[in-house]
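4.2 Preliminary Data

To establish feasibility before requesting continued support, the project team ran the inverse folding procedure on a target of 293 residues. The structure was first converted into the token representation described in Section 3, and no sequence information of any kind was made available to the design step. The complete token record follows.
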């Protein structure tokens, strides 16, 4: 019995922390979403059932924020994976400068979101370095662009920030996966006369497929949960046009103190993320089964 209890004793601290800081708040948020929740002492929270969810479905700004989250996800996931794989392939070969380049590419990942978001905000300000370079130095534009004052250009800035900061993480995952590519397969492909592209398509890509599935799921989840960069770069402006789901939820809950509606928005996002993750895993499993067949 003592031997059998040891693994559970090691697991207990993590499980307890997960239950206290993840499971319990999630359950509370689900409960709050069915109420007109009041935080004032002595105030009574009124049961409203599904009214908060109906309100979200009928709220044009919720759909705008969801669209912006979707645009961010679609614009950042594929470039992060493609560029991460390309850089990993370049850094796979051993060289004296390889460790330096690995650190340089990974540095944005470990840099604070606050620091890099404020950096991009100042770079793309009306009198920032980007406008100076394009307008005053290279003369590629007739006038300065107000990058953060329009929805389209502001989303471009936020997406570029997300791609730049996430490439290093994708690179490290792919570098780890590339270490597991059997050298015998590479050598056999070379002996069969396969070129670089053929070896990449027939040997490398299938070998790193588990890493690709993992990255796609995690990056989709992260893309739909974008928050800090939007708050710090545009704060949802102009007039809420760059709000994403989490910034809209945050404003409803902590600016307007409408915790019931904010919780309903959070629950809808959680359901969407869960459904997309399950679909991705099922598609990946189906492709793996077809490959084995």
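Position-by-position output of the design step:
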């Amino acid at each position: 019995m003592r031997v059998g209890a040891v693994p559970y004793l090691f697991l207990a601290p993590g499980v307890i922390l997960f239950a206290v800081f993840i499971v319990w708040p999630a359950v509370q948020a689900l409960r709050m979403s069915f109420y007109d929740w009041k935080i004032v002492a002595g105030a009574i929270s009124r049961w409203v059932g599904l009214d908060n969810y109906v309100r979200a479905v009928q709220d044009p700004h919720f759909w705008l924020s969801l669209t912006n989250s979707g645009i961010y996800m679609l614009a950042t996931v594929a470039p992060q994976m493609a560029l991460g794989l390309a850089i990993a392939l370049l850094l796979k070969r051993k060289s004296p400068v390889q460790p330096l380049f690995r650190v340089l590419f990974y540095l944005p990942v470990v840099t604070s979101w606050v620091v890099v978001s404020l950096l991009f905000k100042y770079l793309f300000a009306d009198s920032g370095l980007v406008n100076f370079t394009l307008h005053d130095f290279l003369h590629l534009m007739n006038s300065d662009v107000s990058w953060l004052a329009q929805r389209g250009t502001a989303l471009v800035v936020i997406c570029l920030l997300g791609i730049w900061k996430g490439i290093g993480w994708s690179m490290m995952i792919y570098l780890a996966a590339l270490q597991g590519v059997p050298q015998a397969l590479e050598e056999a492909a070379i002996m069969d006369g396969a070129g670089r592209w053929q070896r990449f398509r027939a040997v490398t890509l299938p070998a790193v497929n588990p890493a690709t599935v993992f990255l796609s799921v995690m990056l989709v989840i992260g893309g739909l949960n974008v928050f800090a960069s939007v708050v710090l770069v545009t704060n949802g402006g102009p007039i809420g046009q760059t709000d994403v789901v989490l910034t809209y939820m945050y404003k409803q809950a902590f600016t307007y103190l409408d915790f019931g509606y904010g919780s309903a928005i959070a629950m809808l996002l959680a359901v969407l993320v869960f459904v997309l993750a399950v679909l991705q895993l099922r598609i990946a499993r189906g492709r793996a089964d077809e490959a084995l067949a």
